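User: Structure please.
Assistant: Input sequence and predicted structure:
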Amino acid sequence: MIRVLVVDDHDVVRSGLTVLLSAELGIEAAGQAADGSAALAEAERLRPDVALLDIDLPGLDGITVAAGLAERLPSCRTVMLTALDRSGHLRRALAAGAVGYLLKSTPPAGVADAVRRVAAGGRAIDARMREEERSGSSPLTDKEAEPLRLAAEGAHSREIAADLFLSVGTVRNRLSSAVGKLHARTLVDAVRIATHHGWL
């Protein structure tokens, strides 16, 4: 049985989530809290498997609570369930130790699925937020971005190598690394992805 602590300052949301999760096979809504301090106290008392946290809480916000849980109760897996859909919030939550980030528009079955996934050791990031995360910060190093930028301008490997005082093999390795990090099919696809996100 996966034991879940539900944390939200809105009674109707908290109660609804409790009913929803309790109706799911293998999941128990073990407790509730309406603010950050109460969430930490309840987590230490109940020792849940998963904490479902809103970010915008009175007192301690959800990201602070996530960090506190990661330190005090590392066995508890934290999922943020919030209306805040900016990549900055996602990055802060993940840095604080959260392993899930869902928007409140997530269907009920999606919330239950995320609880099961993180309880089993996985991550659960809303697909819309994964796109925000990719667009928020570049996965490329400067050494990968520079030859890709020159390729975007139409330069071939030999020209890039001459411009950057590198061997052709090194240029090809760096371009290949950039293609891989961007999950692109080809160099042209990598240029398109990086340009679209403003990484070049």
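The mean pLDDT is 91.
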